[in-house]
Amino acid sequence: MKDDNYNEISKNGLWNNNVALVQLLGLCPLLAVTGTVINGLGLGLATMLTLIISNAVVSLIRHLVRPEVRVPVFVLIIASVVTAIELAMNAWLYELYTVLGIFIPLIVTNCGILARAEAFASKNRLLPSILDGLMMGLGFTLVLVTLGAIREILGYGTLFNNSHLMFGELAHNWTWVFIEDYSGFLLAILPPGAFIGMGLIIALKNVIDKHNKKKQTNTATQIVSSTEAAV
Amino acid sequence: MLFKTASSPHITQKNSIQALMFKVLLAMIPGTIAMIIFFGWGVLINIIIASVVALLAETLMLWIRKRPIKPYITDGSALLTACLLALALPQLAPWWLTVIGTLFAIVVAKHLYGGLGFNPFNPAMVGYVVVIISFPREMTQWVPPLLDTYTQLNFTETLSIIFGGDLPLTYTWDAITMATPLDTVKTQLGLELSIKEIEHHTIYGPMFGSVGGFGWEWVNGLFLATGLYLALKGIIDWRIPAGLIAALLILSNTFALYDYASFTPPSFHLFSGGIMLAAFFIATDPVTAATTTKGRWLYGAGIGIFIFIIRTWGAYPDGIAFAVILMNMAAPLLDYYTMPRAFGHSWTEFPHHHKVDDDE
């Protein structure tokens, strides 16, 4: 790969090849923890950190690992990184750690991370690999936060509830209440709400892509016709 | 005598979708009138709200999906969905509950899957499931069927409760709503009472009527009668309701014989809740049901079995919507495994490779 494609890497991670919206990987944690924005953000950031570190390590050892054993080695690396992050969260973000529960250790099984190690980091230099991890993680986090926001507004009528789990005591009053005395729309919080919300987000992305493509071809045909006219 | 048509056997199909839906809707009228008589104006108000919302949502979705609006809007399918959903909802359900249920039924369950003919799940039942798992409290606002000990609401009072959400000053929720017989049986069995004690209870006794709950037995009887007429006319397939009722009858009879103190008798199972409406009008939806002869028997029986299981051991008093949706999922599989042998072909030939595969 060329050196000047950082733009391309960012674009791929955030939009064109988004882990959640296009590759549809890591759906288990995505659907399970996005009941609120903060839960989504917490898991998203943990996943992003895992991606950055595991991509960096895999990229560094890419010449040492024989292709026959690469997958077990990648899994070991990812598992060690996740264990370290889990212990760190247990130490410093204990409340969030208890809320997210089993889904932090389960980051190991997020296929998105192994996919990036296999498809990108094992073939690229250190810096692009780190950027790829960052951008893929960011894209994943954005989807988690968006889905969390939709479900939190519909399900609880609030936004940024429990911010103190992540940002400390200062954030206690960050909660936005949209509707007072909201009795709650349980479906949005339950798993079906996650599936429906995810489907709608993917549909929205496809609509935007289609729209952009149409605009591009339109401008392209305009240019062609104007040059033809000029000729 | 001169016959106009020549060559090919032209079998005319008299039933267009519109005529079919219209006949089914017509057949629902007697049962619906009985519901209005027993359960008050709330039934009618729910039907009106659901119908208006369904037609508007249908128009909007057809417009967004760039489909011809007029033929689809007049086919009556949205109206039928709305009526089935409205009949399943409690009579004093707030207006927004009916609106959410109908919107989910038409927008998500029907049009997001491709519109009429493409939806894998019965739209009305999806709408019902959405509201019952989202708003369990509001879904308990059932009106007592014409019982002396309870207050009957007039039309304006019902309207103000549905749209305003607040009660007229002199009433409390306990005076104008009541648990359904199915719900009562479930709660009281949980309190270690026997079926006989519940049916002769001073408070709960009267609601059980003579067979399946006061009021309910009439509603179910009328739906059974008109449903049978539809089946006789060939508008709906008789095998689905037959399978459903047979399965429910056999299961409930077996368990009632085994322990009559804690399992309700089959007559109660068949004439309470929405069984007849489900058997003849909901389960027979030609889009979401199985299509082969054997498959239809199994499909109906599956719904009956699930209804019995959910009623007896489940968390909800009635389980029609869940049973129908579960069997909707199984319908393609049932069709696949019950495909009839094509005439002139042996079982091992083309569309039946799976039979060989199974043996391997």
Label this structure with key terms.
heterodimer; A: 231 residues; mainly alpha; two-stranded antiparallel ribbon; B: 360 residues; 2 domains; 18 helices; globular; disordered C terminus
Please indicate the percent range of residues of chain B in DSSP E strands (runs of 2 or more). Answer: under 5%
Low-confidence stretches of chain B: 356-360
End-to-end gap of chain B? 58 Å
The pLDDT mean of chain B sits at 85
Q: Would you list the SSEs of chain A in sequence order as H and E?
A: HHHHHHHEHEHH
Percentage of residues in helical conformation of chain A? 55-70%
> What letter string, H or E per element, gives the SSE order of chain B?
HHHHHHHHHHHHHHHHHH
**Mind telling me the C-alpha Rg of chain A?**
20 Å
Question: What is the makeup of the main sheet of chain A?
Answer: 2 strands, antiparallel
Number of strands of chain B: 0
**What assembly state would you assign to the polypeptide chains in this entry?**
heterodimer
Class computed from helices, strands and strand pairing of chain B:
mainly alpha
User: Low-confidence segments of chain A, ≥5 residues, pLDDT <50?
Assistant: none
In which range does the helix fraction of chain B lie? Answer: 55-70%
Radius of gyration of chain B, taken over Cα atoms and rounded to an integer in Å: 22 Å
- Sheet of most strands of chain B: none
Neighbour order of strands in the largest sheet of chain A: 1-2
Shape category of chain B: globular
Average pLDDT level of chain A: 85
Explained architecture:
The complex is a heterodimer of chains A (about 230) and B (about 350). Chain A has about 230 residues and is an all-alpha fold. Chain A has helices spanning about 5-15, 25-35, 35-60, 70-90, 95-100, 110-120, 125-155, 165, 185-190, 190-230, and strands spanning about 160, 175. Chain A is flat. The two termini of chain A are about 40 Å apart. In chain B, helix 5 packs across helix 6, helix 5 (about 75-90) runs parallel beside helix 7 and helix 16 runs antiparallel to helix 17 (about 320-335). Mean pLDDT of chain B is about 85; it is low at about 355-360. Chain B has helices at about 15-25, 30-40, 40-65, 70-75, 75-90, 95-110, 125-135, 155-165, 175, 180-190, 195-200, 215-230, 240-260, 265-270, 275-280, 295-315, 320-335, 355-360. Chain B has 18 helices and no strands.
